[in-house]
Amino acid sequence: MKTIDDLNFKGLRAIVRVDFNVPLNDKYEITDETRINAAIPTIKKILNDGGMVILMSHLGRPKNGPEEKYSLKHLLPALNRKLGLEVKFASDCIGEIPRKLSAGLKNGEVLLLENLRFHKEETKGDEDFAQELASLADVYVNDAFGTAHRAHASTAVIAKFFPKDKYFGYVMANELTHINKVLKEAESPFTAILGGAKVSGKIEIIKNLLDKVDNLIIGGGMMFTFIKALGGNVGNSLIEDDLLETARQAVEDAKSKGVNLYLPVDTVIANQFDNDAHRKTCDSRDIPEGWMGLDIGEKSCSQFAGVIKQSKTILWNGPMGVFEMENFSHGTRAVAEAVAEATDNGAFSLIGGGDSVAAINKYNLAGRVSYVSTGGGAMLEFIEGKELPGVKAIEEE
Ligand code: AMP
To answer: Predicted confidence band at 357 (pLDDT cuts at 50, 70, 90)?
Structure first.
């Protein structure tokens, strides 16, 4: 693996693709700095060598050009604070503005480019756009694991303009090393815990995990598609009807592959999507009309915790419930604590996905798990065995 440790950056301009896709609140304050923190060691290594850093990232999903709420300038105070210097800012990522600012950089200085996705060429993987970005620097570093599964201009296409001068940053190198530990060297019992809202993105992945894991725990909004597929009543819970057959098939496959599939036996239900809604616990297969499941129940928590604590390898992606609301956060917390306890007892645990990371941080457990991944979708695609364009672009000759 060619990493930034293989080069002395003295006097060189490095354009670094980072994953600064951080959550911002209404006041444009960062509510979780994990992704910025993750990129700091790579930036510091280049600066300490005496190099110059040009940072580029996307933020959110702007539709038609620039939007205030997706401006990367909101990240400047945090970056300045963490790096202990004044980061320069280019209000556009291509054209005259970044060209001038890049040319004016001195050793040890940092330039942040405006949101790449303010130009639709970024996600289209446009070559001219990639070349414009490439023209700003001598070396390309990819440290954005979170977008490594996308063949975008800044994550993959740009690499061709640096046939020899392209490197993995520390985030990328770390992610690849740790995920391979789960993929290739998983000690048994291996338990995967999947949750969150997006069933569609994960159901395919479940199929692939079935060849690797001993136990598969499914919670969060995605559980209801499984429960309905098995004949349960899910009331007004989150559901993807077009995936019912896929879910039913996954249950069959788990059986035939000898994987223990755990669905929550009980569910905390509410009459509204609101922290202060009326709530009660019921059998997951028997949710009344007008009620929706927003968390896993007590019995499920203890059953899942038992399985987790007996595991030697653990992969967790996605909350067990609407953990942003205090009253529906207990399942996610119970799982987080069980993962930490298993890790204390020698298990290897990998946590991935924006919301699981937010949860593990919220409960101050980041220090008690083996590795917290910064890339949800990318991590899961990697686990699925897919080749990531962002990884391939650096590795290929
Ligand atoms: P994802 O991005 O797919 O990992 O989904 C994360 C989101 O799923 C979080 O914002 C949770 O609030 C949400 N979520 C988890 N459980 C449920 C549920 N039972 N009903 C609705 N949303 C849920």
So the answer is: confident
Cβ(339)–Cβ(363) below 8 Å: no
Q: How far is the CA of 301 from the centre of ligand 1 (A)?
A: 17
Residue minimizing CA distance to atom 18 of ligand 1: 221
| Assessment of whether the complete model's pTM goes beyond 0.90 | no
- Compute the average pLDDT of residues 291-316: 98
Is 198 designated active site?
Answer: yes
Correct CATH for 178-383 of 3.40.50.1260, 3.40.1800.10, 2.60.120.10, 3.50.50.60: 3.40.50.1260
Boundaries of every domain in the chain:
4-171, 178-383
Ligand 1: which atom is nearest the Cα of residue 321?
A: 16
Is residue 264 lining ligand 1, measured as CB closer than 6 Å? no
Question: Which atom of ligand 1 is least distant from the CA of 323?
Answer: 12
pLDDT in tens, 117-126: 999 999 999 9
The domain made up of 4-171 is a member of CATH 3.40.50.1260: yes
DSSP 265-302: SEEEEESSSSTTS-EEEEETTEEPTT-EEEEE-HHHHH
